[in-house]
Amino acid sequence: IDAKGLAVAPGFIDTHAHSEFTLLADPRAEGKLFQGITTEINGNCGLSAAPLYNEAAEHRENDLKELKIKERWKTFGEYFRILEDRGIALNFLTLAGHGSIRASAVGYKDKRPGKIEMRKMQVLLKESINEGAAGLSTGLIYPPGIYSDTEELIELCKVIPPLRPPLERGGWGGGIYTSHMRSEGKNLIESIKEAIRIGKEADVRVHISHIKTSGKENWDKIDEAVGLIESARRKGIRVTCDRYPYTASSTDLDTILPSWTYDGGTEKELRRLKNPEMREKIRKEILYEHPDSDYWKRVSVSSVSSKKNKWMEGKTLTFISGRINIKPVDALFKILIEEKLRAGAIFSSMSEDNLKRFLSLPYVMIGSDSSARSRTGLTCKGKPHPRGFGSFPRFLGRYVRNKRLMSMTSAVHKITMLPARTFGINGRGVLKKGAFADIVVFDPERIIDRATFDKPFLKPEGIYYVIVNGLPEVWEGEITCATAGKILRSQGYLPR
Fold first, then answer.
1. pLDDT cut 70: percent of the chain above it
2. Are strands 344-348 and 248-252 parallel, antiparallel or unpaired?
């Protein structure tokens, strides 16, 4: 490779991915490789590929069928074997999802786990770590994680291997607790305090997923939020964060609904939506929470399952409601009922100034919060968030080079060595003799994202070579399909 005039860096590490199933459906992972990503941290937001028992397995069936995945598994060990047999294009490290664990042991009921159920959850987490999971993730706005209290999470986190002396210079052993917190807006401060308390009482590292101040009325909370995190760090509680370089987020459309509607799983949630009296109660709560009519202009549909509603993808709820001549909240109900809750959404609710401040913090890494997708095939559908093809080149091109938030060297550290140390990934995130050959060759003057909300599958510019474990996955800007990725197992892994 003639790299004259180009930058040669360690492969980028995506600290927040959701590729558990898409990699089985399509191992090419074009959207990630084109960005220079060679390693993903998966299993975030409480949603992991395993363990899958009882209601957890039932709940995931639709995802597997939609992606035409025929294999079934229960444990991480079984899942890893399937993934290795299939072959993947990048390195895969995962967390154990609290939602998957709780659904396996307790189900989707709004209840505290009993002693036997709590013990089952602890055993499932311990087994997951023994099979290679790097720690525990929570999604505290999603069922069933939304039903957990702080004490439950502390007791579970005590199962995670405690902090150990550095495995190599700057890197720490033991597991990690990552959290999509209970609130990123109205109750942001209380949510950060909860995450810090869990880290302190369980003696575990804490990583806050996609840190943000969501909703204009909450933008001024950034000083207090940053102050809390930095105070905890000064006291020796190891708190880090990740963030994607966009002011719009993306998740399930039904997260707009009140939390009580989720109790008992998707069938009961749908039943409540179809019941006129229940729907009126839900309507009142939503309109109380979102009284501003402009709110619906900031929510767009990113994906639906049915053909008849494909026209809605990429459109705001305000536009959709006008097209079908009903109110936006009724358009929400109509979509959720017709799609049987399987609809995604994009929410535009964040501050550009706050984004730049978060990105500038030395303990904040970059996480795309996206699954691995490709430009053709099963994973090329809908109008997903452009972060799936654009996060890392957008960070380096728009925020580092153009807006000069930091030096290019500091930025590369933030997406290579820092996440490797944070998640205990030895031999990666560095360029040195004896390290794994995960390498990106890019042009610092040309690197930029091209993916947009209207055209989310456009590959970025300025990244020419991506090498994974010594084999080229991107050569002169094109995918090679080398499938050189490996399963990365955590320090708690116990080979059988």
1. 97
2. antiparallel
CB-count exposure of residue 454 (10 Å: 0-12, 13-18, 19+): exposed
Tokens for 136, please give them. 């525990």
- State the Cα–Cα distance between residues 403 and 396, nearest whole angstrom: 10
CB neighbour list of residue 142: distance below 8 Å, 6 or more residues apart: 45, 46, 47, 99, 180, 252, 255, 262
Q: What is the pTM of this model?
A: 0.95
H helices present in 53-186, as ranges: 54-66, 76-86, 98-105, 115-130, 150-157
Pairing of strands 91-94, 37-42: parallel
Q: What share of the chain is helix, strand, coil (3-state, %, to 5)?
A: 40, 20, 45
Query: Average of pLDDT values for 363-374?
Result: 98
Between CA 136 and CA 303 the distance in angstroms is 28
pLDDT digits (tens, 9 = 90+) for 295-320: 999 999 999 999 999 999 999 999 99
**Paired tokens of 239:** 């708190």
Does residue 326 carry a pLDDT above 90?
A: yes
CA dihedral of residues 249, 252, 254, 256 (deg, nearest 10): -10
Residues near 147 by Cβ (< 8 Å), separated by ≥ 6?
A: 102, 109, 110, 111, 112, 263
Residue carrying the six token digits 């006008």: 322
For 277, the token pair is 């009296």
Amino acid making up residue 144:
P
3-class DSSP state of 113? coil
CA distance 168 to 165: 9
Give which of 146, 36, 166, 20 is closest to 473, Cα–Cα. Answer: 36
Q: What are the backbone angles phi and psi of residue 7, rounded to the nearest 5°?
A: -100, 135
Angle between helices 276-289 and 328-338 (to 10 degrees): 130
CA nearest to 175, candidates 232, 224, 127, 129: 129
Evaluate whether 229 touches 192 at the Cβ level (below 8 Å).
yes
With beta carbons less than 8 A apart as the criterion, state whether 304 and 312 touch.
yes
The ranges assigned to domains in the chain are 7-247+349-479, 252-348
Among residues 361, 444, 343, the alpha carbon closest in space to that of 397 is found at 444
Are 460 and 451 in contact, with CB atoms under 8 Å apart?
yes
Say which CATH class 7-247+349-479 falls into: alpha beta
